[in-house]
From TrEMBL:
UniProt superkingdom: Eukaryota
The protein's name in its UniProt record: FAD/NAD(P)-binding domain-containing protein
Listed InterPro entries: FAD/NAD-bd_sf, FAD/NAD-binding_dom
Chain ranges of the FAD/NAD(P)-binding domain: 14-337
Pfam (any one): Pyr_redox_2
GO CC terms of this entry: cytoplasm
Residues of the signal peptide: none
Species assigned in the record: Penicillium frequentans
Amino acid sequence: MPSNDGVRAVARSFRVLIIGGSYGGLAAALNLSDLARGRVCRFNSNPDAKPPSYKIPLQITVVDERDGYFHLIGSPKSLACEKFAAESWTRFKDIPALKSPDFSFIQGTVSKVDSASKIAHILDSETQQNRTEKYDYLIAASGLRRIFPVAPQSVRREDFLEETKKHVENVRNASQGIVVVGGGAVGIEMAAELKILYPEQKITLIHSRSRLLSSEELPDEFAERALTILREENVEVILGKRVVDTTAVDSGKERVWRLTLADGQQLTTGLVLSAISQPVPTSTYLDPEALNEEGLIKIHPSLQFSGNIPNAEHHFAVGDLAAWSGIKRCGGAMHMGQYAANNVHQHMLAERTGEKPTYMNLTPFPNVIGLALGKKCATYNAAEGTKDGEDLMDVMFGKDMANSICWNYMRLSDPPQA
Ligand SMILES: Cc1cc2nc3c(=O)[nH]c(=O)nc-3n(C[C@H](O)[C@H](O)[C@H](O)COP(=O)(O)OP(=O)(O)OC[C@H]3O[C@@H](n4cnc5c(N)ncnc54)[C@H](O)[C@@H]3O)c2cc1C
């Protein structure tokens, strides 16, 4: 039936449950809400795009362990800087774009999803009670679990600010310098950010392999450029030596750490930060049939589950948790969020109107990376190869580790549209 603005409305209301309210989950929620309201979705940059011809009443519920959106990319900086920390975590209830009757939020942990009955079991953080949530469509966007100091462990903004305060104290009080163990992307960014924030502090990065970024499929040239920039910025880098022992030593007033490397070399430091742990998929709430051997969700290019589970076509996965090619990135997570929103919307329309769905299908993601290295940024993609520079840092990360870039791209300050 046509409404006042000439857009027809689908009668039935759909319930969409999104697990995880970060880049992938929020991108899916916001783009889906745009489409359901009969608008071109916010990530669609095609000026000729036509808005949908139907409005669809829906209720989008986002479940997250955290009480807000945390800018994870900025974690190496926010955990070491109280000002930046305060800017990088916004409670869902304080995000203008989410103040719409389309959205509701549950702070809690999804413990099980029953895809046959389309019910999710949630441990609600507020009540500490188990509750269930029925849904028509589910979008899994809960990413990978990362330990401190790669990511904060707090789930409330207030506690996160306290967690940061303690970490900052530890960083400031480390009178014998700081050692970061692990020269993957996270360890490199951590070491570089600490040096920029605390230029007087001695920062050492230790990596067990002879090349930084040894487990990423990136060319040697890129790894070498990252090494050169780190050294230019006065981060000491030790390559090819595994840390085999870390012992606490009481040196009068303060506790320090003695590290022993595989070749017997010893060094003393005030603080050891580990960036070597592998992140773990949060997919334990799903039927193992939905997962690959790494615990990532098997998907079709439409982002629908491809594993053999009931109602697979009503289940979508986006972001780090989806088994897809390429280095895991927030840009990829947001891109998947848009595609999932489009495809959920198409599926709803097809169910209600009989129209044939037009899915947006993912193409393989190439290996691309942008590394924030203090003042400079280094980037790699197959077309342009390795590049670096301070101007590139501005383009890729701005002044706040891309916090504003992501926030503005998702248009989180925009009030909800009518
Ligand atoms: C230190 C660091 C630096 C990075 N730098 C960059 C960079 O420069 N550029 C880039 O593109 N990418 C970068 N990345 C990668 C990027 O952060 C990820 O690719 C991105 O966060 C993936 O987004 P996502 O929405 O899939 O998951 P996440 O951002 O991990 O969000 C998952 C959400 O799900 C919630 N959750 C988890 N389990 C449950 C559950 N069971 N129930 C309810 N909620 C749950 C979590 O609380 C979280 O809010 C970096 C990552 C790290 C750790």
